[in-house]
Design brief:
Strand content: 35-45%
Largest sheet: 18 strands, mixed
Helix content: 10-25%
Radius of gyration: 19 Å
Shape: globular
Distance between the termini: 61 Å
């Protein structure tokens, strides 16, 4: 019979392999400029192909951009001077979950399989509002005060204001923003949606460096 130590060794190798494959939730597929990843209080310089894990914080310096592709093919473009955090991510057919946070800067999101099989489990948080999806492409920008501008270019999104809880007062309802419209959110709440203009989209996507599309190069470049 096969010696026990060999079986144990093989099992350990399998467990290590499974753990490593589970830990990686996506990768930096392309970037331009200076982009860093903070993990467990350690900061490392990102390059094209760098893998991501839960709780990672991706930061781009001024003039820099990065494109992230998650395991469910969700694509998130991080624009200039942006801080993006992976709060929770699990791509599983039974219990999928994606929760991201943008503190400041610009971003574009193209939802993947989680957005199709469990759209209610996909959230993107900002200081002033939480964004939910309906099978979606959306682009947004957050200023230093946390004020959000966001436009939906495909599908629809729901924008819920992050207001303090007031006793005996029902929470404010989410605002539906359909394809072709945009809204603003601040500490007071979410504005009624309106049709965006080409100028609005240029303003929102101007810091995204040309990566705001599905796929893209796996190499570093200027994104053009």
């Amino acid at each position: 019979p096969q010696p026990m130590p060999s079986i144990i060794k093989h099992t350990i190798l399998l467990l290590i392999s499974a753990t490593l494959s589970f830990a990686s939730i996506g990768k930096i597929s392309a970037l331009n400029g200076d982009v860093s990843i903070t993990r467990d209080s350690k900061v490392v310089k990102a390059v094209a192909g760098t893998t991501l894990e839960q709780k990672d914080i991706v930061k781009s310096s001024k003039g820099s951009t990065a494109q992230i592709v998650f395991n469910d093919n969700t694509v998130i473009t991080v624009g200039s001077a942006t801080t993006f955090k992976v709060e929770e991510y699990l791509f599983d057919e039974k219990t999928p979950n994606a929760k991201f946070k943008v503190e400041e800067g610009s971003f574009k999101t193209i939802t993947g399989k989680i957005g199709k099989i469990a759209p209610d489990k996909f959230k993107l948080e900002t200081k002033t509002a939480t964004i939910g999806i309906r099978g979606t492409v959306f682009v947004g920008k957050i200023d230093g005060e946390g004020n959000l501008k966001i436009a939906c270019t495909k599908g629809a999104i729901v924008v819920t204001p992050n207001l303090p809880n007031i006793p005996n007062t029902p929470p404010p309802p989410p605002t539906l923003v359909p394809e072709g419209q945009m809204t603003n959110a601040d500490k007071k709440g979410v504005e009624p949606p309106r049709t965006y203009t080409p100028g609005d989209l240029k303003d929102l996507g101007g810091d995204l460096g040309g990566y705001a599309k599905r796929g893209g190069s796996n190499n570093q470049g200027n994104g053009n």
